[in-house]
């Protein structure tokens, strides 16, 4: 039997203090995120980060044991971009979270490769989770429905955003614009969609007029999010109706028991 690898996390230990005339952990994380934003995930190394900071790799290792810990810190730094406001309704909080996480992923494209691989256990990620749970609980969701609602919002956001992040990353790697990507796909789609005339006609109609792929994805994201939140609102309404219907029956049973 293979022994499972012991899980370790940078969040399991207290951050070390700043060495005399040394770097702080916040400085290291900020520089790491800048390097990731500029050059991507594969470009990050302790040596390269040390050079960017004008220091040796030893100064980086004072605060993080390895690259995995550094990525945990950078990932949580990206979650800081998600701005949530205490006391807002469940729908407003879910919308703020969804748009905020989408924005964070599209701003930090490397984040798309870490989600689901690097656990989101940092204080910023947990802040988002806690505020979502609180908003749904205050909004009337109960029991496991709170967890399911949070999962629905997260799943929709990631499902709609990660492919877009991959598309943008591909454009960067090939050094072309999104419009150039769309134009390059045109002849391919004309050929492969020939046996699906209705689908082919829709594709041609989009591109017969001024087509902004970035705007189209933004509108599409909004459409899907509103539809998903409408579905959660309907589930909440149905749950409330069931409770209201059950209450008179419970009261009758209680009265009968007392008379007996």
TrEMBL record:
Molecular-function annotations in GO: DNA-binding transcription factor activity; transcription cis-regulatory region binding
Keywords: DNA-binding, Repressor, Transcription, Transcription regulation
PANTHER family in alphabetical order: HTH-TYPE TRANSCRIPTIONAL REGULATOR RUTR (PTHR30055), TRANSCRIPTIONAL REGULATORY PROTEIN (PTHR30055:SF151)
Gene3D superfamilies noted in UniProt: Homeodomain-like, Tetracycline Repressor, domain 2
Domain of life: Bacteria
One Pfam family recorded for the sequence: TetR_C_1
Protein's name in the database: TetR family transcriptional regulator
InterPro entries: DNA-bd_HTH_TetR-type_CS, Homeodomain-like_sf, HTH-type_TetR-like_transc_reg, HTH_TetR, Repressor_TetR_C, Tet_transcr_reg_TetR, Tet_transcr_reg_TetR-rel_C_sf
Organism of provenance: Acrocarpospora macrocephala
Protein's GO biological process: negative regulation of DNA-templated transcription; response to antibiotic
Sequence ranges of Polar residues compositional bias: 247-260
Every HTH tetR-type domain range: 22-82
Renumbered residue ranges of the record's region Disordered: 238-260
Coiled coil: none
Keyword DNA-binding (UniProt): yes
Residue ranges for the DNA-binding region feature of this UniProt entry: 45-64
Stored SUPFAM superfamilies: Homeodomain-like (SSF46689), Tetracyclin repressor-like, C-terminal domain (SSF48498)
